[in-house]
Amino acid sequence: MAKRSQFFITPLAEEQPPRTGTVVLIHLICLYAPFLWILFRTMPSDSHRWNLIKALPTLPGAFLRNIPGLETLPPALTYSLMGAATLVAFVVLVFLGKHSRGWLIISALAALGFASWNSWLVY
User: Fold this and answer.
1) For residue 9, what pLDDT is reported?
2) For the chain, which residues make up each domain, given as ranges?
3) How many Cα atoms sit within 13 Å of 90 on the Cβ side?
4) How confident is the model over 19-52, as pLDDT tens digits?
5) What's the rounded Cα separation, in Å, for the pair 63 and 46?
6) pLDDT for 55-68, tens place per residue?
7) Is the sign of the CA dihedral 67, 69, 73, 78 positive or negative?
8) In this structure, how many other beta carbons lie within 10 angstroms of the beta carbon of residue 10?
9) How far apart are CA 62 and CA 122, in angstroms?
10) What CA–CA distance (Å, rounded) separates 4 from 1?
């Protein structure tokens, strides 16, 4: 009788959690990949495009610009709130993704959906 490999013997509950660097890299890619259209669009470089490039680190939190009470705030405060929302979302998603591979997949898909929706709002 052939010896079974260790892969089939070890239950899924005993898997090692993903490495922190891998989780961070996956979530950064998922959060910022939907905004690549800003860099690669074929239209001329106008002021709107350069404003979006300058605001790129905070763009995953762009949903805050569409909340009725927050649209009248000064731009500096709006971008600060967008940066804080991006940071909170990133920390929560990395925390969830660090538990197991299943949670990593779920949190990466959530990050991709969240960033895609925000990219659509920015467009």
Assistant:
1) 54
2) 20-122
3) 21
4) 889 999 999 999 888 888 877 877 677 777 777 7
5) 23
6) 778 878 778 777 78
7) negative
8) 10
9) 7
10) 9
Looking up tokens 């690669």 gives 40
Measured between alpha carbons, how far is 6 from 44 in angstroms, rounded to an integer? 56
Global confidence as pTM? 0.75
End-to-end alpha-carbon separation of the chain, Å?
61
Please provide the size of the chain in residues: 123
Check residue 4 and report its DSSP letter.
Answer: P
* Cα 64 to Cα 117: distance, rounded to the nearest angstrom: 12
The letter for the amino acid at 98 is: K
Give kind and range of the element (H or E) at residue 89. helix 75-97
Say which residues have a Cβ less than 8 Å from residue 90's Cβ, sequence separation at least 6: 27, 28, 31, 60
Rounded distance between C-alpha atoms, residue 13 and residue 32, angstroms: 31
pLDDT, residue 92, reads 93
Residue 41 CA: distances (Å) to CA of 44, 50, 123: 8, 12, 11
In sequence order, the 6+-apart residues with CB closer than 8 A to the CB of 85 are: 60, 61, 63, 64
Structure tokens at 11: 């239950």
